Amino acid sequence: MTQVALVGYGRFGRALGTLLVESGMSYRALDPFSEVPEPYRVTSLPELVAGAELVVVAVPVPRLHSVLEALRPHLRPEQLVMDVGSVKVKPVEALAEVLGTKVPWVGTHPLFGPLSLAMAERPLRVVICPNPQHPEAAGRARRFYERLGCEIVEQTPENHDRVMAHTHALTFFVAKGMIDAGTGINVPFAPASFKALARTIEVVRSDAGHLFAAIQRENPFASEARSHLLKALEEIHGELERLPPESSAQEAGHMAIPAPQAGSPELTEARAHIDQLDRELMELLARRTELAQRAARAKAREGRPVLDPAREESLLAERRAWAAELGLEAEAVEELFRSILRFSRRSQAKGN
Ligand SMILES: O=C(O)C(=O)C[C@]1(C(=O)O)C=C[C@@H](O)C=C1
Fold first, then answer.
1. EC annotation (predicted)?
2. ipTM field
């Protein structure tokens, strides 16, 4: 059984611990700032790393260097050390500087967090940054993450941080700007375009704070990406302000964001949207299945039967009410959910 030593038991460390147990791996954890539950708790670094195949350092990026220094004397050459930071250039520099060739190490960034794990989002992706000092380490990290059900992408630390500066950092930057400008997410109505952003706003709000700071301040490319965005926004704002109020649709038209498939016939466009929605429905079904299997495992641990007719009845009644609210035929929707429940029970039986 793979024994993992988790250095740091914050929000990510704890979520990773749950995933490890679900994947049949055992772990122990140490964190002077967080409560570690009894079966996993150890009280010192030597006790933590003794016997571990893998040492996962899940601490805020600015603390990584000093934590690695504290770990170094207790590590053995057959172990593998990984970080899980949201940026990669600086952590990989710290790993190279502190551990060098003494112990195999590799920089990794799991692109999922406690929220996406709780919501059973799929796929779980991980970026791994192979390094020439330990050419075999990336393969070992890959096998570990694949056991957790993750998909792997290999990148250099620089490429990773460049991409993250324009995606992760800018998304969080915009979301934080909207929070500070007073955007509320619990509004009585909102366009679909806002819903995706509302999720990010929620993530930024629920974050301990160090994630936001790390993805902005520890990424060497983030400052430039933010400046470009601000400049582009200023220009758009200026152009909008300068447009005369009576400007024609054509005059204002050059500001419109071009449609990906301009001028497509109505049927083709409707079908493209239907395909996209069906794909999303399928992804939601996959996540629902995962959550139902999780519920089944929880009930098995409590010694309760998996089948719960009372829950199913109340669930169906609630879906009927939701259907009515949305102007859908309640009987048809109930029928659909009866089939989803049959499917769910079959996958629970298979998943156990
Ligand atoms: O909620 C639970 O207890 C589940 O196991 C999930 C679920 C479902 O798919 O919604 C599946 C089977 C139970 O009979 C009730 C509900």
1. 5.4.99.5
2. 0.94
